[in-house]
Amino acid sequence: MFPLRDENPADRAPVVTRALIALNAAAFLYELTLGPALRDFVAQWGVVPARVVLSLQGGEPLLAPALSFGSSMFLHGGWAHLIGNMWYLWIFGDNVEDRLGRAGYLVFYLVAGVVASIIHVLSNPGSVLPTVGASGAIAAVLGAYAVAYPRARVITLVPLFPFFQIMALPALLVLGLWFVFQFIIGTLSLGQGPGAGGVAWWAHIGGFVFGALVMHAFGRGRRPARSRARVEP
Fold first, then answer.
1. Confidence of residue 171 (pLDDT cuts 50, 70, 90)
2. For 14, 44, 124, 176, which has the most beta carbons within 10 A of its beta carbon?
3. Least confident of 96-100, 123-127, 138-142, 143-147
C-alpha cells in the first residue's frame, strides 16, 4: 500500500516539516556535487555501527561517530530514497507538528532520528555499512500519527493484482501494516552478518515505537479543534 494523502487538515502551516524537507533536499543536492568523493563523504557522516562500537571500546575517538548520529538523518542514498522519505514526511508530519507544537516537534524529530540510529547499532553492531537517511525519524512521525489520529482517513493506493485501487483507509490500518512489514523483515534480517542488507529495518521499528510512545505520553491530550471535528465525528 502506498499513501497518497490524508484527509486530516492541520490548523497551522507546517513550518518545521517544510524546513526539514528543504534541508534534506539541500543536503542531497550537495551530495550530487561530490562526484567520486561521495563514497568517502557518506562513510564519514553516515552511521557505521562497527565504528560506533569500536569508539565506545576506546579504539578510536568518539566525536566523529557521535556527530554521525545527527548528520546521517539528513543524507540519502538516491532520488528514490529521498523522495519516498519526504513524501511520507509531507503527508503525516504536518499533523504531528500541529499536535506537538513546532518546537516540541523539532526536538521530537531530531531525538527520534538519534534513537532510531542507536537501535540500528544495537541490532547490528558488527555492520561496516554506513547508514544514512531520515527513515528512522520519519518512522517516529508515523508512530506518533498512528496514536494521535488512528481514525483519520488516508487515501491509499492499494495493489489488488493485476489492478490498483485507490481507497480511503484508517491511518491505524495503513501505518499498522507498514509497521508489521518492517517488523517481519527486520526480524528475518537479524543474524545475517555484518555486511548483509542495505536497509536499517530496526531503525524503522525503533523509530515507530519511540514515536508512538512519545505521542501516547505527551501528545494525546492536545487535540486541535478542527482536526477533532474532521477525524472524530
1. very high
2. 124
3. 123-127
Cα dihedral angle (176, 179, 180, 182), rounded to 10 degrees? Answer: 160
Strand order in the sheet with 163-170: 2-6, 153-160, 163-170
Which of 52-66, 78-92, 164-178 is predicted least confidently? 52-66
In one letter, which amino acid is 78? G
Cell of residue 27, nine digits: 543536503
Alpha-carbon distance of 210 to 24, in angstroms, equals 22
What's the pTM? 0.89
Nine cell digits for residue 1: 500500500
User: Long-range contacts made by residues 117-122, C-beta under 8 angstroms, separation at least 24?
Assistant: 117/47, 117/69, 117/72, 117/73, 117/200, 117/203, 118/69, 118/206, 119/202, 119/203, 119/205, 119/206, 119/207, 120/47, 120/49, 120/200, 120/202, 120/203, 120/206, 121/47, 121/49, 121/52, 121/53, 122/202
* R_g over Cα of the chain: 18
Look up cell 514526511; give the residue: 89
Q: What cell was used for 134?
A: 531520515
106 φ/ψ angles, rounded to the nearest 5 degrees: -65, -45
CA 213, 218, 222, 224 dihedral sign is negative
Given a contact cutoff of 8 angstroms between Cβ atoms, the answer to whether 203 and 135 are in contact is yes
